[in-house]
Structure prediction request, 419 residues.
Amino acid sequence: MSESLPRREALAQACHTFCEEAANLFLVEVEPDSTICHANRCFLRKARLIDLPRGQTIGTLLAPAAAGETPDQPAPPPPPPWEDASESRPSLAEGGASSLPVLVRFRSSHRLFQARWFPWPEGGGLLLGEALGDTDSAMGTAISAVSAEMTRLVRELQRQQALLREDLQAAAVIQQCLLPQALPDLGGFRCAWRFQPCAEVGGDLFQVLPLGPGRAGVCILDVAGHGVRAAMLTVAIAQALGPDSPLVFEGPPGDRRPARPGTVLARLDAEFPFERFETYFTMVYLILDGHRGTVRLASAGHPHPLVMSAGTQVRTLPGTGPIVGFGTIDPEEEHEIELAPGDRLVLFNDGVTERRNGHGKFWDVPGLTAALTATQALPLDEALEAILERVTAYGEGRPFEDDLTLLAFEFCGPRVTEP
Prediction:
C-alpha cells in the first residue's frame, strides 16, 4: 500500500470540491490504466451521461485534438496525454512543469474544449477544462484560481513525498537491523535463510530467540500492508519478543522457562489489539529442541510450514488459528512433531507463494514444494539460494510486490549433552 496515496487523494478531493458546483468547469480524475475514478457534474453533462459507468475509460469519452483544429476541419490528433508513460513527461513528483495544456473533443457532441492535464507521479492524473471560445471572464478567473490552487497543492505534495522517502529509507534500515545477526545454540539443527525486500518497506519479520542450550524460539510474521506504519509495528513486535520477554518466558525469577507457542501467540494477541493499532498480523511461533529433534508450534493465519523428508513428498504441518489482533486466539491450539535426521523444516511468507508471472498466476505452494524436492540433495544454504533464484525467475524480471522470506532448519541428529 503506497503511503503517497492519501496525499494524492487529498489533492484530488480539494480540486473536486472546488469544481463541483462550477457550471462551466469540467474535472475528471483518471487512473494509470485510463479508467475514470471521478468526474464532476459538468463533465457528465458534457459527456451526455447521467452516471459514470463502472470501468469507463477516458478514451471512450474524449479524444485529443490538434492545435488549430475546428469542428469543421479536423486534424490528425496528438497522442493522449493520459496514455503518455514516457520518462520525459511532466510529473507531480518533479520540480518542473506540473501540467500540460491540451485540446480535447467530446465524442458525444464533437465539441472542442481547452483543458490542462495534471499528471500523477505513478500514472493517471486530473483533467481540468473549459469550453473553447467562451469569453466569460468569470470562468477564466475560476480556471486561474483552480490552477493556482493545484500548483500550491502539487508543491506541498512534492515536499511531503520527499519527507516520506526519508522516512521509508530509515524504516528500511531498521527492518534490516531486525534480521538475525547471530544464531543461538540450536543443538542438532542447522539454519539458513533468505530475505528479499520489495520496493516498499514492509512488515515482515523473522527471529530466532535463545531459550536455553540447544533450544530456540522461532517466529515468522507478516504485518498487513506496507509503509512506515507496518514497519514501526514490526519494530514494536520485535522489541516485545526481546531477551527475557514476559511474552516468551514464564515462571518466577530463577525458575524461568519458555512459554508454550500457543501461549506466546495469545499474549501477542492481547498486546497488539486491532483497536489500538488499526492493523493485524499473521504469525507462526515454534520451539525447536535440538536435543530431541522436536518442533512444537502454533500458527495464527500464517502460511503453513513445510517439512521435507528424505525419499518422501513434502508434507504440510497441521493447524492454523485466527490472525493476531482480534482477541480470538486459543492458547491450547498447538502441535508437536518429531523430525528424523536429514529432515528439513521450511517457514516462509506469502511473498514467496504469491510471486506472479507475466500472466498474473501465483507461484503458489506447489511451486515451492517442487523447488524443495528439486534442491533436496544440495546443502541447506545452497538449496535456499537455488529456490530464491527459481522464484525470482518466475516473476519474469518484475520487481517483488512483497517482501520474500525463506527460513529453513535441517535436523542433523540429536546432540547428547555432556554430563
Observations:
- The domain at 180-411 is CATH 3.60.40.10 (Phosphatase 2c; domain 1).
- The longest helix spans residues 137-177.
